[in-house]
Specification:
ATP-binding; alpha/beta; Glucose Oxidase, domain 1; Rossmann fold; 2 domains; pyrimidine biosynthesis; about 30% strand; 11 helices; about 375 residues; 20 strands; binds glutamine; eleven-stranded mixed β-sheet
């Protein structure tokens, strides 16, 4: 690769050395990608081969350093249509072989430029397959990326990584959620009003509801039952979001209030974990989680298998093969991951409430699970009938 003749600042920055240091002491040497500096987070891998803009801007990735298993990243550049929120949330980005020349009719700038513009430190040119296998065998762990000409010594880097906060016990929703309520209008005739509690919501989620005639009031993570019922909702939605669901006591209490009023309820991802807790189940940290757009899930209510988008590091601990008695009536596991039998959905049998651990909004990802938004609409219709 010769970059010297082109000689602009970005090309020079790319050539700077960079090091990725895992908390268990494993080290990878590469080149800086995006901003130059240092960053820390939880190392996780995503198996999505497309959709890097959606991944980078998903608030659920707050405080995580994302390793892309797809070797070529950045090929289609960065456009202004695909972000799922107003900024990049990942704490760091790890790619093997970034595109040097992006090409797409929608592309406005390169991914490298975008990462630099938003101050996101990344690393390229490392063996992401070896790193992914390491994380798969040892589990997700803390990591640091250090880039520049004057790097700290190895012992200092490792000590800094080991001082970074862990994901277990992290309470992060309020750091990413909206501070002010906003409304996403229904597309076409308005049929329903939904109060959506923003724990780190992705932009496509209210859009999927709006497409179905729902006016969505997106409320801050700290919303109270009074705030929720002030919009006179036909249904209440709990979004995806970063951090450990074991810390989400406020949203759990709010959801219990919604359940006791029997308002139709739908939760996605963090929202599924909160429903689990609201029903009295525990949550636990998966060894390395599910991230990507090709995860097989079975809907046990129909037997159908869907290929789905995921981004979760925690899961609900609920019995797979029995109906549970909860303070809100009977509940069961409605969806399960076919790779590892992790709980991927919950539903109540005596009142209109359900949730899934994965991403039916499909940004990015296959649209197999779009029916879940229709199920939410049916619950709201049922309540009116
Ligand atoms: N996308 C999400 O909502 C993630 C939920 C939670 N933070 C987890 O990692 O499991």
């Amino acid at each position: 690769m010769t970059t010297s003749t082109q000689g602009n600042a970005s090309q020079k920055e790319k050539a700077l050395p960079a090091v990725l240091v895992l908390e268990d002491g494993r080290v990878f040497h590469g080149r800086s990608y995006g901003a130059v500096g240092e960053t820390f987070g939880e190392a996780v891998f995503s198996t999505g081969m497309t959709g890097y803009q959606e991944t980078l801007t998903d608030p659920s990735y707050h405080r995580q350093v994302v390793v892309m298993t797809a070797p070529h990243v950045g090929n289609t550049g960065v456009n202004d249509e695909d972000p799922e929120s107003k900024r990049i949330w990942v704490a760091g980005y790890v790619v093997r072989d970034p595109a040097r020349v992006p090409s797409n009719w929608r592309s406005r700038r390169s991914l490298d430029e975008e990462l630099r513009g938003q101050g996101v430190v990344g690393i390229s040119g490392i063996d992401t397959r070896a790193l992914t296998r390491h994380l798969r065998e040892r589990g997700a762990m803390r990591v640091g990326i250090f880039s520049g000409n004057a790097l700290p010594d190895a012992g200092t880097m490792l000590a800094e990584v080991r001082q970074a906060p862990e994901m277990k016990g992290a309470n992060l929703s309020a750091e990413v959620a909206t501070k002010e309520t906003y409304v996403v209008p229904a597309i076409g005739a308005k049929k329903f009003t939904v109060a959506a509690v923003d724990l780190g919501i992705k932009g496509m989620t209210p859009h999927r509801m709006a497409e179905r005639g729902i006016e969505v009031h997106v409320l801050p993570a700290t919303a109270t039952a009074e705030d929720v019922y002030a919009v006179n909702p036909d249904g209440v939605f709990f979004s995806n979001g970063p951090g450990d669901p074991a810390t989400a006591d406020g949203p759990v209490a709010l959801m219990q209030e919604v359940l006791s009023r029997r308002t139709p309820l739908f939760g996605i991802c963090f929202g599924n974990q909160i429903l689990g807790r609201a029903l009295g189940f525990g949550t636990y940290k998966l060894k390395y989680g599910h991230r990507g757009i090709n995860q097989p899930v079975q809907d046990r209510t129909t037997g159908k298998v869907e290929v789905t988008a995921h981004n979760h590091g925690f899961a609900v601990d609920a019995p797979l093969d029995e109906v549970s008695q909860t303070p809100y009536g009977r509940a069961e596991v409605s969806h399960v991951c076919l790779n590892d039998n992790v709980v991927e959905g919950l539903q109540l049998l005596d009142q209109p409430a359900f949730s899934v651990q994965y991403h039916p909004e499909a940004a990015a990802g296959p649209h197999d699970a779009a029916y879940l938004f229709d199920r939410f609409v049916s619950l709201m219709e049922g309540q009116r009938a």
